[in-house]
Amino acid sequence: MSNIVEVVNLTRSFGDFKAVDTISFTVKRGEIFGFLGANGAGKTTTIRMLCGLLLPSSGQANIMGYNLYTDYEKIKATIGYMSQKFSLYNDLTVRENIEFYGGVYGLTRKQIKEKTKELLESLNLEKQANTLTAALPLGWKQRLALSTSLLHNPEIIFLDEPTSGIDPVSRRNFWLIIYKLAEQGKTVFVTTHYMNEAEYCNTVSIMKDGKIIALDSPARLKSTYKADKMQDVFMRAIV
Q: Measuring CA to CA, which residue among 169, 119, 161, 179 is closest to residue 139?
């Protein structure tokens, strides 16, 4: 598999504080790549840079062949991005939110109609289609946010702590959707602070204080740190 993300010595500073400190990694096409770390480790800052929402202070990165410094508008137009904070419109219905974002992505009326039907079915949201978003449980809201990030059929989807605050059943159902996307050849970049979710990734990067301190598959990380669970890997890595 070819690399769809290539990062070399990427750094982001805010004054004297380095939120992300010279990190390097690659993500292969069709891979589920997990960024694991406590709150404040630098995960969200990294994902915002890779999505073209925040320029780095130094270092290099290419997303689908696009340069992070010069092609950030192209990057934003061709990726899927689901932010940590729910960002859709609570006073619109599920269907209206999907249709609105279809227009934002420049889809035709025919494409919006087809995509809306397709996404409502694939994410099991048909029964909630005409429900106001404000009335949905958080787990369903997250499904809706994910659906809007997929409208323009992006090759790579960035998910920033997509399961934060939702119940275990909804978390598992959300990860089933992520697996389905990966099976379709999509690349999924996901940040999380839930240690058990790292088990679901092909590759895991563990961050601490803006640095990557461990990077490998879950199986190899558990072997390296002589641990049975990723929770133990994480605790031993950050010491």
A: 169
* Residue found under tokens 């480790």: 41
Q: Is the pTM of this model over 0.90?
A: no
Interval 29-38: pLDDT, tens: 999 999 998 8
Tens of pLDDT, residue by residue over 202-221, are: 999 999 999 999 999 999 99
Which structure tokens are listed for 152? 């323009």
Instruction: Please list, in sequence order, all residues whose beta carbon lies within 8 angstroms of the beta carbon of residue 15, skipping any fewer than 6 positions away.
Output: none
| Main-chain phi, psi angles of 115, to 5 degrees | -65, -40
Q: Positive or negative, the Cα torsion across 216, 217, 220, 223?
A: positive
Q: Residue 32, SS3?
A: strand
70 φ, ψ (degrees, to nearest 5) = -105, -20
Q: With a cut of 50, which residues of the chain have pLDDT below it? A: none
Whole-angstrom CA distances from 169 to 31, 80, 176, 182, 183 are: 24, 24, 11, 20, 21
